[in-house]
Design goal:
By secondary structure, the protein is of the alpha/beta class. The chain has 2 domains: 43-186, 3-Layer(aba) Sandwich (Rossmann fold), CATH 3.40.50; 198-334, HAD superfamily/HAD-like (Rossmann fold, 3-Layer(aba) Sandwich), CATH 3.40.50.1000. It is 39% helix and 18% strand. The protein is built from 14 helices and 14 strands. Helix 8 links the parallel strand 8 (162-167) and strand 9 (183-186). Helix 3 (56-76) crosses helix 6 and helix 9 runs antiparallel to helix 10 (222-231). The longest helix is centred in the first third of the chain and has 21 residues, at 56-76. The chain starts with a helix and ends in a 7-residue tail after the last strand. Keywords: Signal. This is Cytosolic 5'-nucleotidase 1A-like. GO terms for molecular function: 5'-nucleotidase activity; magnesium ion binding; nucleotide binding. One of its GO terms (cellular component) is cytosol.
Length: 341
């Protein structure tokens, strides 16, 4: 009913929705869901097929020759696994039956705040079979798939209580952000990540925090934004697009003693610690959000720190820092400006 409620009435739409409570491995497409232990409390991450797999050559084929030839290509190669994409390491540790969920259930067998994954794709059902086969090839316990045949996925994300959306399509990311859903643009690259913990790095302004201080800096310069921050040290900074997801991770972390915590979070900001760090720290305190490590770099490059952390994903709104992350082999999620000038 939730999915059907999202359909508009301005045109005739034909959808096949399959709802099952068993394994979906033999199904080849459509919108396929598995009943969860508690979907209301699940931490649902939606990820696109181009974010989790390297589909860049296939995407170029689609752009050059259209859906028909693209679908034929995917059918002809449906038994050939796709190469790993940028978001796959992050999904590998946060998918159902993966490391973080296992640790949560070891800690509390009745735990209901567990990661769940929905794979959302612009593929149609026929071309989507290669994606399902690739999921199985990498041993990922992902059982929920939406093959939308080019339809904007953002209108479905709220229906399924999605807490984070990762996509290689900037338009889809912006649509999700405008609906208030934490989202980031994933760029295909070779990555190097740590294995022992889920490591997530957040930029400060425009990511964890709102863009208020960033706007003052752009309009009036560094001296004025330092004064602005000092005058407002007692006032929490506004919420940024990834704050809600960071709070979820923070809540999960509180369930573990530090030495057994399967999640490690970081603040990596260009703010000066002396001049602009106080308000940031007090804001985190006001939110009740603890991060494991915080770096105030005063404009210095972030990639040397990222190379040491080796996170599963790094969220930032600066193309400069995203390029640095790509160069260091860090999986990056870019928060685009969307309709900002």
């Amino acid at each position: 009913p939730q999915a059907l409620a999202r359909l508009g009435t301005s045109s005739i739409n034909v959808f096949v929705v399959v709802v099952v409570s068993c394994c979906t491995e033999q199904l080849s497409g459509y919108c396929v869901f598995v009943l969860q232990k508690d979907s209301a409390q699940a931490v649902t991450i939606a990820v696109s097929s181009r974010a989790i797999f390297d589909l860049e050559e296939e995407h170029e084929l689609f752009l050059a020759e259209g859906m028909g030839n693209y679908t034929s290509h995917q059918i002809a190669h449906e038994n050939e696994p796709l190469a790993e994409g940028t978001a796959l390491p992050f999904i590998r540790v946060s998918a159902p039956k993966a490391m973080v969920n296992e640790k949560l259930l070891e800690n509390n067998p009745e735990e209901k705040q567990l990661f769940d994954i929905i794979l959302v794709s612009n593929n149609n059902a026929q071309s989507g079979l290669r994606i399902i086969n690739s999921i199985k090839h990498y041993g990922l316990h992902i059982t929920r798939f939406c093959f939308l045949n080019g339809i904007d996925p953002s209108k479905y994300l709220q229906s399924y209580n999605v807490k984070l959306f990762l996509s290689a399509n900037e338009s889809a990311v912006c649509s999700a952000l405008k609906r208030g859903i934490p989202a980031a643009l994933v760029i295909q690259q070779d990555v190097q990540t740590a294995a022992e913990q889920l490591r997530v790095v957040f930029d400060g302004d425009c990511v964890l925090f709102s863009d208020e201080s960033e706007n003052v800096y752009r309009e009036k310069g560094l001296d004025e934004v330092i004064k602005y921050e000092k005058d407002r040290e007692h006032i929490p900074i506004g919420e940024g697009p990834l704050k809600a997801f960071a709070m979820i991770l923070g809540n999960m972390k509180k369930k573990f003693p530090r030495e057994k915590d399967p999640i490690c979070t970081y603040l990596l900001t260009s703010r000066s610690g002396r001049d602009m760090g106080v308000r940031a720290i007090k804001t985190l305190r006001d939110w009740g959000l603890e991060v494991d490590q915080a770096f105030f770099l005063d404009g210095a490059p972030k990639d040397p720190i990222l190379a040491q952390i080796r996170p599963h994903i790094f969220f930032d709104d600066s193309t400069h820092h995203i390029r640095g992350a790509l160069a260091s082999g860090t999986p990056a999620g870019y928060i685009p400006p969307c309709d900002k000038s």
